[in-house]
Specification:
single chain, mainly alpha, about 150 residues, Arc Repressor Mutant, subunit A, three-stranded antiparallel beta sheet, 2 domains
Amino acid sequence: MGTGDDKTDYAAMVAEAEASVAAVKDPELRRVAFEKILTTLLDGKQLKAQQHPSTQRRAARSGKTKAKRASGVNRQGPKAHVEKLIGDGFFKKQRTMAEVKAELANNGHHIALTSLSGPLQTLTQDRKLRRQKATANGNGSKQAFVYSNW
């Protein structure tokens, strides 16, 4: 904290505080206001100095990542993976959610069943997939939804 740059910063802060209280007529009130403003400015400088450099780098990276996500670049997620299966013709035959999960796992995308139901429903609503109730094992005891191309 003993560098010439710090002195310049402090001088600028004192000048800013003086300018802020210049219009105050009462000398006691001006002194108290000056102290308060200068303390606030100094606290802000100390807070910046205390931040760890890795925290600053992480904050800069997260901003880039958010911008990348917002622009739709590198869109990866359950819905995108299922859309890839649609493009590959996986849904030419009726498939259960468990079969979809297994195929995604074969492709290296390990997604929980609970994370698949929403994207499958959205793709159904967008008429990219058709959803029908069918018996799971053919004997009519248990019914489950199956998905196929529209």
